Amino acid sequence: MSDTAIININGEAFEFPIITGSENEKAIDIKKLRGLTGGVTTIDPGYKNTGSCQSAITFLNGEEGVLRYRGYAIEDLAEKADFLEVAYALIFGDLPSKPQLEKFENDIKDNSLLDVDLRKILEAFPKSAHPMGVLASLTSALTAFNPTSVDVSSDEAMYNAIVKIMGKFPVLVAWTMRKNKGLPLNYGDNSLGYVENLLQMMFSKPNETYKINPIIKDALDKLLILHADHEQNCSTSTVRIVGSSHAGLFASLSAGISALWGPLHGGANQAVLEMLDAILQDGGDTAKYMAKAKDKSDPFRLMGFGHRVYKNFDPRAKIIKVAAKEVLDDLGVDDPILEIAKGLEQEALKDPYFVDRKLYPNVDFYSGIIYRAMGIPTEMFTVMFALGRLPGWIAQWKEMRARKEPIGRPRQIYIGENLRAFKNIENR
Ligand code: ACO
What we know:
Number of helices: 18
Largest sheet: 3 strands, antiparallel
Structural class: mainly alpha
Order of helices and strands: EEEHEEEHHHHHHHHHHHHHHHHH
Shape: globular
Bound molecules: acetyl coenzyme *A
Strand order of the largest sheet: 1-2-3
Distance between the termini: 59 Å
Strand content: 5-15%
Number of strands: 6
């Protein structure tokens, strides 16, 4: 393949370099396109063909179902590492040594208290508020409680901001759930690891000791690891683009949470469970819902199926499917929803509509089943996703600032009215 691309416009040829990534991915570098061609732009709604940056964080090959963070296979990380090690690798580039991990963990614990005034903001929300809206607001409010913006040129200032948000975010997650359930707002126990502490903050009751089930803890660790980054998806691109205006880290993360909320992105885990529940309530007729998903006049989509990038089995879904079975077996849960999920998966994998369009189960097809078995309310599922994605967002924000990327500002092709005469209001 030549290392340049020629674009012909009205008989004039313009040459552009082709850049190659470390996994041999190719991209036409059109940075000079407008300048050279006198303002011709490209159009690519949904950015299906557009690379917004060069990144050294996550590699994913959707055709082959490959996902790696910092070069480590997702299967290895899910099996052998814990969430904080993975967070460290994503944010700082390598898996931590023991002393590095210990320091990271202790620094996070030192930052795991929330200002009592932040609690008042949470208390002012109605119980009916969706936890994602509450989490986005509280994360944004953290900016008000930590007004100094991070000096991105200082490693120390960046590190302090990172351990601060990593420490405070799980408390926000737990409080968001406890508020909706009417449980007292509590703090964690610094003698516990990150994931154990999260479980105890979410589920402990003032009148009994909370016992951590190691199978639940392992499954949650895996879920968080599998959600930790996914290169330039909708919420991550949002975090990068908001940060590209030099907005602060917490404000950018709050925008990422809002982007994740939608059912076509992180909100899919909630939508999957609601869909499975609706099918169950409707008599469990999976064939009826398969037909609805294929009917172009019906807006219904099989939630948890399909992915913008994976045109093969989502490698995360494979791992989660096994974890779901382990958790349900351990807890002795016989959940009819799992049977519906398995039935839909089997039918879809052999149905020409899904096969031809390469629609496979994605990460969220099975995650909700585990969350539900753990006792996490359905509307908290996307919040759990946000907690998992936090290190990825931080890593991507940090990389974007370190690379001194320009402000994100796409172009458009205007298709509105041409210049027209202004009419006074009496004449309209
Ligand atoms: N059910 C039925 N048909 C589907 C589905 C689905 N879940 N997903 C895609 N299709 C069809 C589309 O109708 C389209 O058909 P056509 O070519 O006949 O018009 C074709 O497959 C391609 O779909 P697009 O929407 O163009 O693909 P895109 O890459 O834009 O969308 C997306 C990907 C949003 C994930 C889509 O597959 C979807 O809506 N899935 C359900 C929601 C979901 O599970 N989202 C979670 C994604 S994972 C994550 O964010 C963590």
